[in-house]
Amino acid sequence: MLLNSVILVLREVLEAAMVVSLFMAFTTVSQQSRGFLLKAILLGLIAGATYAYFLPEISNWLEGIGQEITNTIIHIGIYLCLTGFLWLISSNIVLPNRLVKAVMMAAIILAISRESAEIMLYISGFRSDHFLMQSVLSGSLIGLGIGVSCGIFLYHLMIALKPAAATKFICVLVVVVGGSLMSQATQFLIQADWLPSTEPVWDSSHIISEHSLPGQLLYALMAYESTPTLSQIMVYLASLLLMLVVIISGRFSRSLQHD
Amino acid sequence: MKSIRLYLLLILVATLILVMFVSLLKGYQSSIDTAQRLFDERLVNTAELIASAHTGQTTADSSQRPSSDYLFFQIWNTKGQLLTRSDTAPHIALSRLEKGFDDVNFNGFRWHNYVHPDPQSQRWIIVGERSDVRSSMAEDIVLATILPAFFGILIAAILIWWLIGTGLKPLKNLSKQLASKQADDLKPVELAPLPSEMSQLVKIINQLFWRLDQSFQREQRFAADAAHELRTPISALQIHLHNLRQTYGDNSEDWQLMQAAVDRMGHLVNQILMLYRTAPEQIAAKAEQIDLYKLTSEVIARDYQQFEKRLQHIELIGESAMMHGHLFALETLLQNLLNNASKYAPTNGHIVIHVHPTEKGVRLTIEDDGPGIPADQYERIFDRFYRYQNENSDLQLPGCGLGLAIVQHIIEMHHADIKLTKSAFESGLKVVIDFPAALNK
């Protein structure tokens, strides 16, 4: 049970830690205040608790696929925020900018609310089973510790770079995380039977298992799946492409303004 | 990076957590495997014990068997007949009669079974254990070793916080010393013990202080020497001018302009000399208890001639007011302010001076009935070499624009506050200065 808890909590925490540390590094590199990030984290936790509280009801929506559809909407929401962020910082804006702050806050609130709701729901499922609670809590604590530590390392890795290189690195990671979010959204739609479930295109579980620590890290970073379906791969690549187009067009509009 | 201590704490604790938790997970996995092996051995032993304890060929009757809800056994003969079973066991074989371990679902649980052949008595013994109970027992054993690690990390974090604080103490001491230094304190920084990592930094800081001190001293010496050396030829020039006027009896405008220019040059040199005599280190070193009321009356008495010459009424109101300050600097301040008041007050004008002790120190107020200064010029008139010229007045007053700059300088050295407002007369300026009772506070 401990191992299952570690894997579940680590997966959720890593995803949220990625988004938070990326934006934290961006605010540090661009010398902006970081108080709003803390507010976003707290608001995300409150939203997560609310989401977890109403999740049993939400799950019953749309003939039992409410949770999958809500999760899909949240993932698409985060993806749109990340795309907006990339557009803003690629185009000609002066930092600090209110809109950039707003999209960062929205992305963090959405990411933390979804991930924390999953964790809260998972732990609360063992409320009545004191026998398992201890190992679930220990596993969750280990998962939380590893996830947050990875986030701290990622943040310090980014701020150790020169500002220009750090901003580029942050953009690349935002694109990768964006693709991962859309790939997960596709998975939810497959679970909800809104998208057809097809045969996996490949099986790489013998190289990196999804249940191993590197597998979890890769899942958080780029939604690694050892057995992805064609629709997941297509959506993943399309999302990456869209973000790259947004960055290029942002830079293009900036160069036009400069001319 | 806002704080080195916080950065080190975060990064070290994150490293500790990452390394420790990943090792714990590895340890957990191998401990669980070991525990499962031990439980399997126990299952084999139980099967062998049952085989040796039960030798009869009785048919299934479980009424006398001890029962457990997470353990069962069945004894079958080679013909596939159930000889006996525990309370919890069903009447059908829960595993195929083949030697080894097997996992099956039964009664809403997953069971881990061991099938043991007993060739002597031609029987098969099936012993099963609930998998969830096995896992929980294994986890209980392993968790007992994991839980202290959480407290260990907490204690390690506190220790790291404290140790980093201790390690950074020399840096904190250096920053404290630099922060507490007065603007004029250019003495070298002393750190004991001095860590090797900081010796170069302290050396460079002290070299900078030394060079700064040297250049300050050079600058002061130059200004003071130059002013001092200039005084003699200017005095000689003034005497020669006077003699020339006496000899030729010429009182034309050219003579008067030349006289005014030489007087102005003399005044300027005197003011520069005064500015450097009131250097911060001199003020701090030679501060003493002074009665400002008494000092003001002395300065008025000394310079009374200039007020008398212009038929000005000067009035000193107040009482004895003791304060800590530099005598020469305060004399200069009073001289400059009274000089200014006299210069701008008209003939037959009024100058009123108040000196009173206050709760925090001493208040000095000087008012005149001159033309005054517009409020937007209050800040600027303290600038060096800035002279305010009233647009409505044709009066060309002598001066070099250093008087109020010197006043401001002396006020700063005494940590006093100066305020300019309109005087109580119809027009004119009111200067209010609040001195603290003690210097350097």
Automatic annotation (TrEMBL), chain A:
It comes from Methylophaga frappieri (strain ATCC BAA-2434 / DSM 25690 / JAM7). It is found in: Membrane. InterPro entries: FTR1/Fip1/EfeU. It is a multi-pass membrane protein. Keywords: Membrane, Transmembrane, Transmembrane helix. The chain crosses the membrane at residues 6-29, 36-54, 74-95, 102-123, 135-157, 169-190, 233-252. Belongs to the oxidase-dependent Fe transporter (OFeT) (TC 9.A.10.1) family. One of its GO terms (molecular function) is ferrous iron transmembrane transporter activity. The keyword Transmembrane helix applies. This is Iron permease, FTR1 family protein. It holds the Pfam family FTR1. GO terms for cellular component: high-affinity iron permease complex.
TrEMBL record, chain B:
Its EC number is 2.7.13.3. InterPro entries: 2CSK_N, HATPase_C_sf, HATPase_dom, His_kinase_dom, HisK_dim/P_dom, HisK_dim/P_sf, Sig_transdc_His_kin-like_C, TCS_sensor_his_kinase. Keywords: ATP-binding, Kinase, Membrane, Nucleotide-binding, Phosphoprotein, Transferase, Transmembrane, Transmembrane helix, Two-component regulatory system. It is an enzyme of class 2 (transferase). GO terms for molecular function: ATP binding; phosphorelay sensor kinase activity. It catalyses: ATP + protein L-histidine = ADP + protein N-phospho-L-histidine. It is a multi-pass membrane protein. GO terms for cellular component: plasma membrane. The keyword Ubl conjugation does not apply. This is histidine kinase.
